[in-house]
Amino acid sequence: MGDECDRLLLELDHWLHGELPNDRSTALRDHLEQCPPCFESADFQAQLKALVAKRCGEEVPDGLRQRVLGFLQDNQPS
Ligand SMILES: [Zn+2]
Question: Fewer beta carbons within 10 angstroms: which end of the chain, N or C?
Answer without folding.
Answer: C
